[in-house]
Design brief:
With about 425 residues, this protein is an all-alpha fold. It is built from 19 helices and no strands. Residues about 225-230 and about 280-290 have low confidence and may be disordered.
């Protein structure tokens, strides 16, 4: 009888402890989402500054594409370094530092007087921006188990999609509502990122043990991937050992190449759609019920919801076979982008623009869930950084090429077939991730 009572008391104690841990898990996820919700105000506002930069400095779209590429390439280098730093020092401090430093770098950019003084600090800002995503992913990998990664990274990537919405809206407010010049695009929105970074540091904790909880199963998703990953004990790994384990994983490298083309498509839309919607064709639209530049907000709204759904689909519909969700969305993203090219100056293209964002960005949540799936939580920061290095390396290559094409063709709608082509290449490569 006494043993039975002890068992009942233990069960009664375990239940509230489990509920407390669940609340703590969600608190960490929401804290990371809140912080990253403001991060894109530090790097996705550039497209709205392009018309003002061209007018003041007389720079071509190709030259400004190189300025945009400077951020993307420095971001890529930063990802390769900072993901490992997050594994070594923890995501909480690294992500907070990124928010503070990126805010400062944006203010430096706002005082640019020409191409060099624009591109150099914008590139430095790219490195500081790279202190955000992988460290946040590392913290989430500590708190959530393998069976819920699709959902968790879907939510985290949803926050990134919402950040795109915020960066678009705040830029439009600065330029169209407040009637301020391009410099204020780099001054006002980033103050929100500063607030988000400080709040994250105050709320988040690096791992469950910091609050007295036991960590969930954060290992490699299945036995086959565990065998392919090599070393099983990662608690005492050096930085070089983590890099070696990640780079020698063939599936992760295939995924990195695939996300490179996915991100090239994404930034093709993020940077050049505002230019397209601020162009002469859209300014001559009849009707006048909706300011054309506000229609561009449909793009990041679609991106946010696409990311939220793709991670869930990869878990529930495809049984964590994430490549299937990636291929499906990339093919549909290509179709939506072709549709935008056919209807480049029609308000009817609003739905297609939403769908282009939805399907082009959606697979990001499945790509990021692959990192801990393939190499385990203790290497997830390094894996995320390596994958994001390839992601932004290819995105950076695309920017000046798109700018040059738009300069020579005089048709900003040409961005859409380029995006469609990138989506198709990404889908084809993703077929080889099979797991």
């Amino acid at each position: 009888m006494e043993l039975a009572n002890q068992g009942l008391q233990a069960g009664a104690y375990a239940q509230p402890l489990e509920h407390s841990f669940r609340r703590a898990q969600w608190r960490m996820l929401l804290a990371a989402m809140f912080c990253y919700f403001f991060f894109y105000t530090g790097r996705q506002t550039f497209g709205f500054a392009i018309p003002g930069l061209q007018k003041e400095f007389g720079l071509s779209k190709e030259v400004l594409g190189w300025a945009s590429a400077s951020l993307l390439w420095c971001y890529a280098i930063g990802q390769a370094i900072n993901g490992n730093l997050a594994d070594k020092f923890g995501g909480r401090r690294v992500m907070t530092a990124g928010a503070i430093l990126s805010c400062a770098a944006n203010w430096v950019v706002s005082f640019a007087v020409g191409f060099k003084s624009l591109a150099i600090p914008w590139g430095v800002n790219g490195y500081f921006q790279a202190l955000g995503w992988a460290p946040g992913s590392r913290l989430l990998s500590n708190w959530w188990g393998a069976e819920e990664r699709g959902k968790v990274f879907g939510c985290y990537t949803f926050a990134a999609g919402c950040a795109s919405v915020l960066s678009f809206v705040t830029s439009i407010v600065v330029v169209n509502v407040l009637q301020l010049d391009w410099r204020w695009i780099f001054r006002l929105p980033v103050l929100l990122m500063l607030v988000g970074g400080i709040a994250f540091y105050l709320i988040a904790r690096e791992r469950p043990e910091d609050l007295g909880f036991k960590s969930p199963d954060t290992g490699i998703a299945n036995a086959q991937d565990a065998e392919a990953a090599g070393l099983q004990s990662t608690s005492e790994e050096s930085s070089w050992s983590r890099y070696k384990a990640v780079i020698s994983n063939p599936k992760l490298l295939i995924a990195a190449l695939s996300i490179g083309f996915q991100n090239a498509a994404r930034y093709g839309l993020i940077v050049w759609v505002p230019v397209h919607f601020l162009g002469k064709d859209w300014s001559k639209m009849s009707g006048g019920m909706i300011d054309p530049v506000w229609i561009s907000v449909a793009l990041p709204v679609g991106m946010a919801f696409g990311a939220l759904t793709n991670g869930w689909i990869s878990d529930r519909v495809f049984g964590s076979k994430r490549y299937k969700a990636i291929v499906l969305y990339m093919l549909l993203g290509a179709a939506a982008s072709v549709g935008m090219y056919v209807l480049p100056t029609s308000v009817g293209g609003l739905a297609l623009l939403f769908l282009a964002g939805f399907f082009v960005y959606g697979p990001a949540s499945s790509f990021w869930a692959l990192c801990p799936d393939l190499v385990g939580a203790k290497r997830s920061g390094t894996a995320t950084g390596v994958m994001n290095f390839f992601s932004y390396l290819l995105a950076g290559l695309g920017e000046p090429l798109i700018g040059r094409l738009l300069d020579h063709s005089g048709n900003t709608a040409m961005v859409f077939p380029i995006v469609a082509t990138s989506c198709l290449i990404s889908a084809f490569i993703a077929l080889f991730i099979r797991r």
